[in-house]
Amino acid sequence: MSETNGTSEAHPRLRAVLDGIPTYKPGKPAAAADADGPTAYKLSSNENPFPPLPGVMERAVEAAGGFNRYPDMACTGLMEELAARFGVPVSHLATGTGSVGVAQSLLQATSGPGDEVIYAWRSFEAYPIITQVSGATAVPVPLTDGDVHDLEAMAAAITERTRLIFVCNPNNPTGTVVRRAELERFLDRVPGDVLVVLDEAYREFIRDEQVPDGIELHRDRPNVAVLRTFSKAYGLAGLRVGFAVAHEPVAAALRKTAVPFGVSQIAQEAAVASLRSESALLERVDALVGERTRVYEALVGQGWTVPETQANFVWLRLGDRTTDFAAACDRAGVVVRPFAGEGVRVTIGETEANDLFLKAAEEFRKEL
Ligand SMILES: Cc1ncc(COP(=O)(O)O)c(C=O)c1O
């Protein structure tokens, strides 16, 4: 056999755009509980610390009995439930394997080589990855000094090549929000043929009444798509189900670009059960918001500068102390999410976990 027909020297040719794409770094898992050591808590992935609600669990277990079959590809039951819950036609909905799956479909539907995708930076770390995979050019726009989206600068970055703009509200990892007046002003400046994706993965944690609901904004703006997920407030991160609300041509394009049968029947049934148990789930969200206030105030009391957060996490800008701080938290039994050289994102978790984190932060503060 020659060297070029499948032996050691030859490699399948991969797309050049894959070079240099950062790999997605998932939040580090908590270390296995050690009988003698402290319990380790995972505050690194913005998950919901509450276990599944009993009704939701039952529905998922029941659905598991049929997993020899493919799921309902159209997610009919879930689409109907979502349409009723959010007052939108089914034709404005598309589901996917988590909202990140839907975001990837949005890129496939709009952007390719030669096109530009604008997003704030730092923001959700999947944006640069999925943009580069699409072949489009990433145009990151730095956050303001207050760690908020700089919508003026983002509007100024629009060119005739721009196809999609992400606005992450609240922003991951800073927790900061953009409010109605500034967002509407921005949307008014975006050309109608550019899609604006309002990523509202943490929508349910918002208590600032000036933050608009993207689904309401989308109604009379055909170039706005909204991403929502069952992974955060609804506690279904492991089941991978999210959705978009968008006008018909965009939602239809999403249904074309989605991975066929991507959302399992277990996920579909659990999502429907979650929507029907919304009041119980939202009570848990209220409890987390209460914890968020407690953690935020304690950190400010310790002397930290913390951007006001409307999500289920807090952001500490630690610069070159980031890695040391994350290691100190590890030793204290809480795993946080460091972004080396920038800062640490800490999910609001169980009360005990938040206490351990606050204690570690207090100790570290004394050394600064
Ligand atoms: C801003 C933002 N969008 C989307 C996602 C993706 O969530 P999922 O794919 O689980 O719906 C995340 C998850 O961390 C996120 O922070």
Automatic annotation (TrEMBL):
Record flagged with keyword Transferase: yes
GO MF terms held by the record: aromatic-amino-acid transaminase activity; histidinol-phosphate transaminase activity; pyridoxal phosphate binding
PROSITE patterns, per database record: AA_TRANSFER_CLASS_2
Keywords linked to the UniProt accession: Aminotransferase, Pyridoxal phosphate, Transferase
Catalyzed reactions per annotation: an aromatic L-alpha-amino acid + 2-oxoglutarate = an aromatic oxo-acid + L-glutamate
EC number: 2.6.1.57
GO biological process, one term: L-histidine biosynthetic process
Modified residues (N6-(pyridoxal phosphate)lysine): K232
Keyword ATP-binding: no
Matches recorded under InterPro entries: Aminotrans_II_pyridoxalP_BS, Aminotransferase_I/II_large, ArAT, HisP_aminotrans, HistidinolP_aminotransfase, PyrdxlP-dep_Trfase, PyrdxlP-dep_Trfase_major, PyrdxlP-dep_Trfase_small
Cofactor(s) essential for the protein: pyridoxal 5'-phosphate
Xref: PANTHER family: HISTIDINOL-PHOSPHATE AMINOTRANSFERASE, HISTIDINOL-PHOSPHATE AMINOTRANSFERASE 2
Family: Belongs to the class-II pyridoxal-phosphate-dependent aminotransferase family.
Role noted for this protein: Aminotransferase that catalyzes the conversion of aromatic amino acids and 2-oxoglutarate into corresponding aromatic oxo acids and L-glutamate.
Quaternary data: Homodimer.
Name of the protein described by the UniProt record: Aromatic amino acid aminotransferase
Lineage, top ranks: Bacteria, Bacillati, Actinomycetota, Actinomycetes, Kitasatosporales
